[in-house]
Write a structure and sequence with these properties.
Layout lengths: L4 E3 L2 H13 L5 E5 L5 H14 L4 E5 L19 H10 L4 E3 L3 H4 L19 H4 L3 H16 L3 E5 L3 H13 L5 E5 L21 H18 L4 H13 L4 E9 L14 E11 L7 E11 L2
Parallel strand pairs: 1-4, 2-3, 2-5, 3-4, 5-6
Antiparallel strand pairs: 7-8, 8-9
Length: 293
Amino acid sequence: MTLPVVASTREELAKLLAAARAEGHLVALVPTMGALHEGHASLMRAARERVAGGPVVVSIFVNPLQFGPGEDLDRYPRSLEADLAVCEAEGVDIVFAPSVDEVYPGGDPQVTVEPGPLGTVLEGRTRPGHFRGMLTVVAKLFGLVRPDLAVFGEKDYQQLVLVRRMAADLCMATEVVGAPTKREPDGLALSSRNRYLDGDQRPAAVALSRALYAARAEAAYGVCPALDAARAELRSAHGVDLDYLVITDLDLHELPADAPAGTPARILIAARLGSTSGQTTRLIDNMDLVIGG
């Protein structure tokens, strides 16, 4: 294993990528906000499989534009040394770790990417402006790296759908690849925010994935039985404050109760977990299922 080369400026990044492009290699990008875990590592492996000997670029940047007032920007974990070790273990070639000023010279950008109607539902309803900030920084990364493909985790499914929509609508020459969610042995989806969970919240957090698996088991009987099974699982959990629970088609349009058998679907959940200390942690999760299948 060799250490990845770290670029902190646009100029350094461009120089590192120029040689690869001159040799005709494909370039893959894995955008992250750091605090890397096995879920991120699986995205790096997926990128490597697609580009073979071409460079895999991992960006590490905590994007302030996608955090709203009162959200956890200051609390969000930053661990560059540990992150570089993960990248080294996965054979990453280049790590782009810019400062805020490097990404947003002169302050917040005057031109941003509007997510459209899909940016106002689910996470967009709970976190106004989040997807505008996310798409804006992804668009900037696509412009700086010019990747042939970019890998995103299905754990943030709404993000994945929106990035694909942006790439298609704006004619971006980047293939957007989704990679399956990685989970703990007990089913909890891997997330950088899991490290916020205290002793009260960690057992309760597993209720989210249990609810999704319960819905998948009942999806053969329709949308309503699947949702009822998920809600029943959540009622048995202590300290879970549900934000939303919904079954949609693959483009995140909510499915009606009479959705035809064989419809590919996604069930999405978000909840806040309370504890005796008063600290709350918000988690999201989702799972694929087939209605009537």
